[in-house]
Design a protein that fits this description.
This protein is mainly α. It has nine helices and no strands. The longest helix is centred in the C-terminal third of the chain and has 16 residues.
């Protein structure tokens, strides 16, 4: 298992984002359609990466509640792109768990009528490669 510092650096590298530019204005969180479902909000997510508290991010509901709609990316005045940080953290989790994390046969059981279509499209876009 990698240290928290290495995981934080890997998130920054994958996302191509400098989280230190964040001024905590909250515009990213205000535009987030999943805001009410998240325990760690997008602007807080940036702070967790800065403070190298990646384990808390990995164990949070927010990591998987994000729709990857990138509304936060569009709204950020400092070009911090919290959505890309969240996406990079997801990639780290998937890489650490290996290729057997989710079998195709399990997917129909996970989809329910309350699943937003935007989530399905963004998941397809991200994980089809």
């Amino acid at each position: 298992m990698k240290t928290e510092k290495k995981r934080a650096e890997l998130i920054k590298e994958i996302s191509g984002v400098n989280p230190l530019k964040c001024m905590k204005c909250g515009k990213c969180s205000a535009s987030c359609p999943s805001y009410n479902e998240m325990d760690i909000k997008p602007h807080q997510f940036v702070s967790y990466v800065i403070n190298e508290d990646i384990e808390s991010l990995v164990n949070s509901r927010s990591l998987w509640k994000c729709l990857s709609c990138f509304a936060c990316v569009e709204r950020c005045p400092r070009d911090v792109k919290p959505g890309k940080l969240i996406d990079a953290a997801r990639q780290i989790v998937v890489r650490e768990r290996g290729n057997t994390y989710l079998d195709p046969d399990e997917i129909p059981e996970l989809i329910d009528p309350d699943t937003p279509q935007q989530l399905l499209v963004s998941a397809f876009r991200r994980y089809r490669r």
